[in-house]
Description:
This protein is an alpha+beta fold. It has helices at 12-16, 20-30, 44-50, 60-67, 82-90, 103-107, 122-133, and strands at 3-10, 33-40, 72-80, 116-118. It is globular.
Amino acid sequence: MAIESTLLIVKPDGVRRGLVGEVIRRVEAKGLTIDAMRLYTIPREVAEEHYGEHREKPFFGELVDFITGGPVVIAKITGEDAITCWRTLMGPTNPVDAPPGSIRGDFATLIGENIAHGSDSPESAARELKLFFGE
């Protein structure tokens, strides 16, 4: 196990539904540390870079429109195996497959509005933290 940092985003649907506190509570209860956090409206060009690996996919435009459609909460979280821990707390991308007890399993029903984002690898975490926090 290793100490690592990752990006957390509470997406516009989570902010709109008042779930920021619940998401942060679960992160802290798991033992992860919040190193930085802010309310942020993602500019379109940042969103396009963030979702760059999906640029050629048919849902790219919808992804960018959604994530830029309202304020989000972004955070840098750190801890033992933080990437895997955070992704487990969120649950699978498709909320229909997410088990009860996970954020998506408890609060989401649509794959396009699934409450939260987390980096999927150390490489993605480094790239995304640099993009959102300049680190």
